[in-house]
Amino acid sequence: MRHARVAYNGLIQNAMDTEEGIQLEDGRIVEESEVTWLPPVEPKTVFTLGLNFADHAAELSFKEAPKEPLVFLKGPNTFIGHRGETVRPGDVTFMHYECELAVVIGKTAKNVKKEEAYDYVRGYTVANDYALRDYLENYYRPNLRVKNRDTCTPIGPWLVDKEDIDDPMNLQLTTYVNGEITQQGSTADMIFSVPHLIEYLSGFMTLNPGDIILTGTPKGSVDTKVGDEVITEVEGIGRLVNTIVGEETFQTN
Amino acid sequence: MSKVKFKHQGIQQIKEGIYQADQNRIEFDGKQCPLNELSLDVPVSGTVYGTLLNYKGEYAKLESSMNDDPYKAPPKAPILYIKPINTHIGYDAAIPLPEGFDEVSIGAALGVVIGKPAKKIKKENALDYVAGYTIVNDVSIPHESFYRPAYKEKARDGFCPIGPWVLDRDAIGNPNELGIRVLINGELKQENTTSNLIRSVERLLEEVTDFMTLYEGDILLVGVPENAPLAKENDSVKIEIDGIGTLTNKVVKEKVVVGGGIV
């Protein structure tokens, strides 16, 4: 089953995907274009992996793959839903997307072993973890000024039940900018797999239901400009559409 | 006499009271109650952001290596991190000492509680966006490097005591001249003041909200002073901040902590 959170005629509702259209929890069936898409899970604690694909680490000139997961956290300010707009500040010269498989935790997890890790997964969604490389600094890198800006983490459209995904470690990741493929990879090439990440994180802290792990991105990061339509797609999970806008869109004078 | 907002354990709504600092008690609903008789919960529910290297002494300790690997240059913008929900505990709750560690470092931080959404605000009116102040203990596993985010050291369960309450903003004349003290088992282990901040509360709010929105109920920690004291099993840790009060917690082995208490 594929689940979403949407706003329709002023009401926020859970919804699911059906053959006839999107079914709201009050029973109505509506078109995809009639709803405002919200993040499919309300973000609380959200982990993100840096350098979790060897080819991407090499692309960023890291000679050696990391020995333990490079994890950072995001705040609720950064998330927007499917078909949202992401701001590119005027002074930035390099802003790139990152297509990522996002894992949603389903039950409280502490000291979970790899072998049991999938028992703690609720499902999966797609994230686009934009980075604004101009602001990178070598303190708690990647710093929040690069990675936790308002609107810079689109997520959705669907939360897909884990039962519907045979092997989350063998899914194609694809990014399209204005219809052209610019990034391709596979979750099979992650350095630290989903079960490994759950073991690692739950080994030092409690994971709660609704927590989200963004699992990192493969190589193929290119600069995006105002007006670009960026689609990040994870095979079997969904296509997340986003548009880059300039700061003036958000300025009120 | 200062207005405070606090939260009883097990009760959702926030209470208002008057903190009588000289008696260490609060008055609410017509009652006078000593602090140690109250069972208090975390008084806010937003995101807690910490700030690295915002005390002059802390910055000075690293300054000579800032041009070397891996830092390569001094920091330009505020360096933030998040203390996630699993770390938040209330006044008097036990700080779990994880298996395999003998000590934790005590990060005595002034917590600025946001009162309304703050985005690209200016320092001149930054305090208009502040609801009040609280005391936060940014507990960590001691570590030396600031190159990579230190979540394995900072995001452990119970590593962020917050409280005892949120003191009303107007009860503090200037948040940039507050004395901060850490006492362990009653002994003074650290003394500093927010007058040693590199970025004042107002300037920090301006520079942080330039790149991200802070929402009502979020807490921005202004920084942790240098030479953070260490606490071991069974130590009673008290952080005092002028005018705000004291935050007390005890360090207890993780395996005997359940729900903030001891089994």
From TrEMBL, chain A:
**Keyword Isomerase assigned:** yes
Annotated keywords? Isomerase, Metal-binding
Per UniProt, residues of the Fumarylacetoacetase-like C-terminal domain are: 45-245
Q: Pfam families, from UniProt? A: FAA_hydrolase (PF01557)
GO terms, molecular function: 5-carboxymethyl-2-hydroxymuconate delta-isomerase activity; 5-oxopent-3-ene-1,2,5-tricarboxylate decarboxylase activity; metal ion binding
State the Gene Ontology BP annotations.
4-hydroxyphenylacetate catabolic process
Which Gene3D superfamilies does the entry link to? Fumarylacetoacetase-like, C-terminal domain
Is Phosphoprotein tagged as a keyword?
no
State what protein this is by name.
2-hydroxyhepta-2,4-diene-1,7-dioate isomerase
The scientific name of the source species is Oceanobacillus profundus
Automatic annotation (TrEMBL), chain B:
Q: Per UniProt, which keywords does this protein have? A: Isomerase, Metal-binding
Family annotation (NCBIfam families):
HpaG-N-term
**Is Ribonucleoprotein included in the keywords of this UniProt record?**
no
Kindly provide the name given to this protein in its UniProt entry.
Answer: 4-hydroxyphenylacetate isomerase
> What Gene3D superfamilies has UniProt attached to this entry?
Fumarylacetoacetase-like, C-terminal domain (3.90.850.10)
Q: Which domain of life is it from?
A: Bacteria
GO molecular function terms noted in the UniProt entry = 5-carboxymethyl-2-hydroxymuconate delta-isomerase activity; 5-oxopent-3-ene-1,2,5-tricarboxylate decarboxylase activity; metal ion binding
**Some GO term, biological process aspect, for this entry: which one?**
small molecule metabolic process
Residues forming the Fumarylacetoacetase-like C-terminal domain are 47-252
